[in-house]
């Protein structure tokens, strides 16, 4: 079974007039849409104006809260603003938040956990130059971790630099098992259960 999500990436927010109501309207047309995103902030590339990114991020949050489905968040070079918006906009709600392809600091991760976010790691944790990120992954509670491919990008070692594909997720899972001092079967079971719980599958 293949499911999907619906959203506007922060790179594409310039002159984009998507609203909470339009997001909701389009999601209701497709029963296999189970989340909103990816959305969020990217102040590294700044392909779109920061203010337009913030505005659309907040529209996506409103839609996710209204529909009671997970929000998939992209954040790059925007830790403070991402946290500020999430903390403010989901206050006193039962928001379901997944931080996609996490590459931030451990301090940022702790703050996200404090507002009940899930954190997803990609093949980046297998890279030799990503020891700090791998160390962060080792400290995140297993019940809050998901893993992803981000295909066709970020293929894990030993496929670094090649086009990524879903089957390579095993290498990310094996690295996470090593970091958490457990076995692959346990990681597969826990991350699958986390996904099913978050997305109500």
For the structure shown, list the relevant keywords.
201 residues; alpha/beta; six-stranded parallel sheet
Structural summary, described in words:
- This protein is of the alpha/beta class.
- The protein is 41% helix and 14% strand.
- The chain contains 7 helices and 6 strands; from the N terminus they run βαβαβαβαβαβαα.
- It has helices at 20-27, 50-67, 79-89, 106-114, 131-139, 169-179, 184-199, and strands at 4-6, 33-42, 71-76, 97-99, 118-121, 145-147.
- Strands 1-2-3-4-5-6 form a 6-stranded parallel β-sheet, with helices on both faces.
- Helix 1 (20-27) packs across helix 2 (50-67) and helix 6 (169-179) crosses helix 7 (184-199).
- The longest helix has 18 residues, at 50-67.
Q: Short description, anyone?
A:
The chain is an alpha/beta fold.
pLDDT averaged residue by residue: 96
Number of helices: 7
* Strand ordering within the main sheet: 1-2-3-4-5-6
- According to DSSP, the number of beta strands is 6
What pattern of helices and strands is seen along the backbone? EHEHEHEHEHEHH
Beta-strand residue fraction:
5-15%
Shape: globular
- Radius of gyration using CA atoms only: 16 Å
Tell me the structural class: alpha/beta
Biggest β-sheet strands, sense, barrel: 6 strands, parallel
Low-pLDDT segments:
none
Instruction: Assign a percent range to the helix content.
Output: 40-55%
Distance between the termini: 11 Å
Question: Could you give the topology of this structure?
Answer:
Layout: E1 4-6, H1 20-27, E2 33-42, H2 50-67, E3 71-76, H3 79-89, E4 97-99, H4 106-114, E5 118-121, H5 131-139, E6 145-147, H6 169-179, H7 184-199
Parallel strand pairs: 1-2, 2-3, 3-4, 4-5, 5-6
